[in-house]
Amino acid sequence: MRPSIGSLDNGGGSAAPLPDLPPEIVKHILSLLPLKYAMQAALVAKAYKDVWRHSQIIEFDACSFHSLTFASIADIIDRIFAMHDGPIIKAVSLCLLTTARCHESEVVSWIQKAISKGVETLILNFVKGAGTVIISAEDIDISSVRVLKLSGCEIDVLPRARSIEFLKVISFQKVRFTETIIPTLIERCPLLESLELVSCKSFRRLKIVTCMTGRLRVLKLMDCSRALTIEVCVPTLRTFHFHGPITCFDRVDLKQLNDVIICFLPPRILPGLRNFMNILEGLERVVVQTISATFLEGLFQYPNGTMVTEPKHLLPNLEEVQLLIDRGTYINIRNIVSFLLKCPRAERVYIDMNEAGNDADWNVYQDGEIGLLPTLKSPRFVALDGFVFSRNHHAALAYLFLLKAVGLETLVVIPPSSRWNSYHTRRVDIPQYMRSFRYMKSIWSKLNPKVDIKIHNSVTCFNPPAHIISSWY
Questions:
Q1: Strands of the 229-233 sheet, one edge to the other
Q2: Mean pLDDT throughout 423-429?
Q3: How many CA atoms does the CB half-sphere of 403 hold within 13 Å?
Q4: Average pLDDT, the chain
Q5: By C-alpha distance, which of 259, 240, 170, 20 is closest to 159?
Q6: Which stretch of 85-94, 127-136, 334-343 has the lowest confidence by average pLDDT?
Q7: Could you give the C-alpha distances from 280 to 130, 220, 240, in angstroms and in order?
Q8: Contacts (Cβ under 8 Å, ≥6 apart) of 424
Q9: How far apart are CA 100 and CA 331, in angstroms?
Q10: Segment holding 354, helix H or strand E
Q11: What is the average pLDDT across 111-134?
């Protein structure tokens, strides 16, 4: 929680005074606060009662317009812009999580008012609005905008070419657009560095192709469940996050990537092994990789966990493996072992089981005993997120690393988190969970006394936390 100015306790019960600075400097500092906090700061002294009029960050979050009609919302926003006296607005964030129907003319007028003061970051969120906000921006000059994030709307016409050539970051979430919009943006935005498409299901074919002189380094395609083909050829790309069907993932160049998240939707019929091998051939430089259980299932499609061709090392530079186990997927512990054996430098292993569901998701392909599995030499640090002591397959994973990871130093178990999944709708009984942990720790310590067994209430040791991608869509 952000502390409000003048609310700090100095030990004597009175408020801490503002710094002894000239009023002009204090006003400038307060103008850098978001609008809501600038208004709170105005309560400190009468001299600062109008400081919010110069705020450079105008934010309206979901709580600002709770249960209001669109007419009331529009009146508030219009009055804020009308009373703003500052010469500059650096960022405008408008989040309309309301059932009120939004009007295109009002939205366009707000955009134009923000642009008139040189706004650089423009965020418009209409995810829960009744109906679709159609933004026809042909006559809008957004040349000052560097970061553009849209949610829950439809793009009809793009601004003119010279208007968008300075965009660096574009993010569309649940945005409807034609298949020509993205290639046009790529062509018209030579300075574009990051492109994010989340739950944009209006396209069937997506083509993102740039030249060597481009600057696009980050590409995130999440929840692309309706895409048929995706073609990506970006020589400058370094970060690529994907969540969608593998069937459309056949024209993606991954050879130059450093940061990769590949989360395939569980299909009824998996494609051939060649599809997965083609993906792996482009990931030799990757240091941290996030993959889904479906990826492992397709990579090791044989009962004994082997492939048609057995390369000695699949990912020779991989240092951290993050495995996401979604509902409806089938997990074979042997496949996890086989994958780690082919990553000789993978010292850190993170497995997210929050969405794994019940034991049936695991037992379909289970074969062999843990004692018969090969020894793992690389893992040093293992974290099991969403760990439930009463589930046999969770315990099997713990036993696997305790018995087979000869160099294991730390094993961390993390309680299920209701924030990221639908299986754990109730809060975890922490006292009971701790009792179970202490009991199991006494048993596990006998299996491998050299391992430091810990419990954490959140993932604080991995960067980035892979499971946070579940909150994007």
A1: 205-209, 229-233, 251-252
A2: 57
A3: 14
A4: 76
A5: 170
A6: 127-136
A7: 43, 18, 14
A8: 354, 386, 416, 417, 418
A9: 44
A10: none
A11: 78
3-state secondary structure of 337: helix
Share above pLDDT 70 across residues of the chain, in percent, rounded to a whole number: 72
**CA nearest to 314, candidates 383, 359, 378:** 378
Candidates 278, 280, 248, 246; CA nearest to 263 is 246
CB neighbours of 169 closer than 8 A, spacing ≥ 6? 146, 147, 148, 149, 192, 193, 194
Q: Are strands 194-198 and 169-173 parallel, antiparallel or unpaired?
A: parallel
pLDDT in tens, 203-247: 788 888 887 777 899 999 888 777 778 888 888 888 888 887 766
Residue 365: pLDDT over 70: no
For residues 293 and 326, the answer to whether their CB atoms sit within 8 Å is yes
Answer yes or no: are the C-beta atoms of 156 and 181 closer than 8 Å: no
Q: Give the angle subtended at the CA of 468 by the CAs of 66 and 204, to the nearest 5°.
A: 85
Assigned token pair, 388: 């439930």
Identify the helix (H) or strand (E) that includes residue 121. Answer: strand 121-125
pLDDT of res. 230: 83
Confidence of residue 13 (pLDDT cuts 50, 70, 90): very low
Tokens of residue 450, six digits: 């050299």
Strands (E), 293-331: 320-324
CA 405 to chain centre: 30
- The one-character DSSP state at 418 is T
CA angle 275, 332, 272 (to 5 degrees): 15
Residue 136: strand, helix, or coil: strand
Three-state secondary-structure class, residue 83 = helix
**Distance from C-alpha of 91 to C-alpha of 59, rounded to nearest angstrom:** 8
Please report how many Cα atoms fall inside a 13 Å half-sphere around the Cα of residue 2, on the Cβ side. 9
Where do the H-state alpha helices sit in 282-419? 293-299, 333-341, 360-363, 392-404
Omega cis (within 30) before 464? yes
Between 397 and 309, the higher pLDDT residue: 397
pTM of the model: 0.72
Q: 94-129 burial, b if ≥16 CB within 10 A, otherwise e?
A: bbbbbebebeeebbbebbebbbebebbbbbbbbeeb
Q: Which secondary structure element, helix H or strand E, spans residue 135, and what is its range? A: strand 133-136
Cα distance between residue 421 and residue 423, in whole Å: 6
In angstroms, the CA 320 to CA 400 distance is 18
* Phi and psi torsions of 125, nearest 5°: -125, 115
Q: Quick one: how far is CA 122 from the chain centroid?
A: 19
pLDDT tens per residue across span 57-70: 888 876 666 667 77
CA dihedral over 282, 288, 294, 299, signed as positive or negative: positive
Q: Where do we find the tokens 């001299």?
A: 47
At 181 the three-state DSSP class reads helix
